[in-house]
């Protein structure tokens, strides 16, 4: 199987076909690397040596920087570790995208009101 990917390492798609078929499917800016069947675009990226690598994991308290955090459809570009505070009670979904070397993750924060 081949991973078609960009210079950034992002896998754009996986193709299980002979090399001549894969070569014909390459779009501008795409490269191809032979990968094992367990490689997936959501869990791997391709390094400079055309070798698949697992995407790194992280926690909400230690985000990879820089990253993009999306809350209620609004994107925030973070260049330092953010602190999350919400005025209204409820559950907030925080989406994090730190590029092809890291997992795209979703975190839920429950904001409960303080009792006076």
UniProtKB/TrEMBL annotation:
<protein>
    <submittedName>
        <fullName>Uncharacterized protein</fullName>
    </submittedName>
</protein>
